[in-house]
Every structure is written in structure tokens, then in C-alpha cells.
Amino acid sequence: MDTDHFNKKKIINDPVYGFISLPFDLIFDIIEHPYFQRLRRIKQLGLTHLVYPGALHTRFHHALGAMHLTLKAIEVIRSKGHRITKQEEKATALGILLHDIGHGPFSHALEYSIVKGITHESLSKAFMKSLNEEFKGKLDLAIRIFADQYPEKPFLHQLISSQLDMDRLDYLKRDSFFTGVSEGVINSDRIISMLNVKDGNLCVEAKGIYSVEKFIIARRLMYWQVYLHKTVLSAENLLVRILKRAKALSNQGENLFATEALAYFLNSSIGPKELEVRQEALKQFAKLDDFDITASIKEWVNHSDPILSSLCQSLLERKLYKITLQNQAFSAKEKGRTKEKLLKIGLDQNDLEYFTFADSITNNAYQPKADKINLLFKDGSVKDIAIASDQLNIRVLSESVKKHFLCYPKQSMVNNLAKRLS
Description:
Layout: H1 3-7, E1 11-14, E2 18-21, H2 25-32, H3 34-37, H4 59-79, H5 86-97, H6 120-134, H7 140-146, H8 154-160, H9 166-179, H10 188-193, E3 195-198, E4 201-205, H11 209-227, H12 230-251, H13 260-266, H14 272-277, H15 279-285, H16 290-300, H17 306-316, E5 322-326, H18 332-344, E6 357-363, E7 374-376, E8 382-384, H19 385-388, H20 392-397, E9 401-408, H21 411-421
Parallel strand pairs: 4-7
Antiparallel strand pairs: 1-2, 3-4, 5-9, 6-9, 7-8
Helix pairs in contact: 4-5, 4-9, 5-7, 5-8, 9-11, 12-17, 17-21
């Protein structure tokens, strides 16, 4: 017996689903790759643990969970008479396994600060392309399915990315488990058992309507209660401004403490084209994780720049911005109140944006204009969940909700900054 071959059939004990098996050797090899192992060092929910202390699970956890649900979904769809080859099954499992491989430290913080115009989706594609070269084309089909370039069976891509994909099913259930927020608990087994395919597209049998309604409601509640929680927003915006300040100082020639990977991005102007052209850029990004950022922030507390050091101390000691949310945009007068206080302690007009700023957030529980969650009825007809549901709130949840927020420093942050400026 080939022991190396045998040893690749691993079983992983997952806290949410129990035992997860790895049915293909290539999946084991991809998981073992340094690019994928990096996801162990990136928290799934960034700074959410500052609100929910249990939210310390990683992108690694989530990728395995989403792959597990995808393999279960493929079994169900096969059992209903739809042909899915072993190659298609493996490729779809690889596609979902790698869907978040391009995420940087602390979720989207890097996308708004030290790298410009680069989304985690484009980075995931770049990593998949690099892995495909290394594995001599074995990810060709996975990349096609991931990029929705497999018209023969569009439902395979929809399992990876759609309004009711396995990514969402896993993160809602997993994030609920680790935060302890029970409003996000969904019955993923029930939803998966109701999956079917009509005209090549993913749909849910009509008798699963209530489980899908619960999924949409859970998504809306989890966004307000966890993902867009106002204290989480405050912390994430503080981190973005720390990285922006570090980048600005680096551009001015300041020699900041940083790991090799972080220094590369602080000292370079990296955009989408550079990542496509420069292999070095992708290799350096592959070294970046939460630890690079955290270690640097711990050192930057002692930096001579009063703005950087003050912001870093605020994050480490959890002395975050005050944040106010409301339905309408903030007036110039409302924005100006804190600015006057900051100018009085000696902060330069050009640096106000690090301490007080306004922005907005949008909560989209269900977007039928993007793609629909279709219900399949016994007569073969298909209807959008928002039309078929007898619950008015599903139609309401199809509307985007926009809220405006204003961040400004607490008095302790103002006092700390005043000391550093004097």
C-alpha cells in the first residue's frame, strides 16, 4: 500500500460540524501549502473579539467548513438525478476551499489603507493562478468554476458564490457559534437537503421555504449585531487610520518598525497591476498575517509621531472612538464640534481625519437584483423567494438599509493626544 497516498485521507475535528473528511489527495496538498496555512494566522472576524471575546476563529476554520458543506451539497444534488463527475466535485471543493485565500490581515483593513484598489477576490484569483502553475494545471477546472466560466453547469459556481452559497451558510453558523450570538443560528442541514437544480441553476425545493426565510433574517440580524456592530466599526476604522498614518510616515522617509512583508507594502505603491506583474508582491502578501500588524502596532506605541503612537495606544488598550449611528447624513455642524476641540489642543488641520470622520454602511440581507434565491415547486415552476414568501418581511429585507456614522475621540483619547502633542 502507498502509505503517502493513504495518509492524505485525513479527518479533521471541527467544533461546528464534527468530523470533516478530505476526500481528494490534491485538497490535502493544497491545505498543506504555505499559502493556505497562512489562513490559520488570520482571524475570520478581524477585531470583532473586542466586542465578542470568543470570536477568535480563523479563515482556515471557515474555508474547511465551507468545503465540507459544498461536498454535502454535491451529494444531495447527485442523489436527485443530476450528474456531477468526480473531477467537477474535486474542482468545486477546491474553488470553495480557496475562495478566501486572498484575504489580508484583519479582513478589509488593508484594502482601505496600505494597498490600493485590490480586493480579496482579485487576490484569491492571483493565488489560485500561482498555485495552478505550481501544481502543473491541476486547478484549471477549479479556476473556471470559481470565475463562473463553466457554462455547462452554472450551479457549481453558485455553490461557491451566490445569494445562498456554502460560504454564507458556513460563516453564519460558525460566526454565531464563536460569538455566541444565537440570532445567526441557521439549519444548514435542512437547507442543503432541499437543494436542487433547474435549468442548470441552483434552487431550493419549495418545502424548504421557511429554512430559507430564517437564513435571510439571520443574515440581516448578524450584520447589525456582529459584522456592522458599532463598536466593531469603531475598532476597524481605528485600525485603518493606524495603517494609513504608518503608510504616510513611511512615504515621508520615516523608518518604521515592521516585518519584512509589512515593510514591503509600507514602502511601495502596490495596486492590482503590480500584483499581476510582480511575483515578488504576491509572495510578500502571502507572508502577511494578523501577527505582522499586531507586532508593529505594539512597537509603534513608542514612536515619536504623536498621532501614530496615540492611535496605537488607543487600539491596544481598547479605548476606541465614540461612534454615533443615524439614518441621515451628518451635517457640517455636527462634524465640526469635535474638530474645534482637536484644533485647540494643537492638532494640525490636515491631521483631523485621523481622529474624526463620517461615513456610511449598508446592510443587504437579500439582493434579488444581483441573483435570486429560487424556489422549485412540484409543478416544475420556479419563483423568487421574495415573491413566493408569505412573509412580508422577506420583501422588506430585499431593500438595502443605509446608516451613517460619525467617529470622534473619547475624552481619554483627546487627553492622551494632547500630552503627546505638548
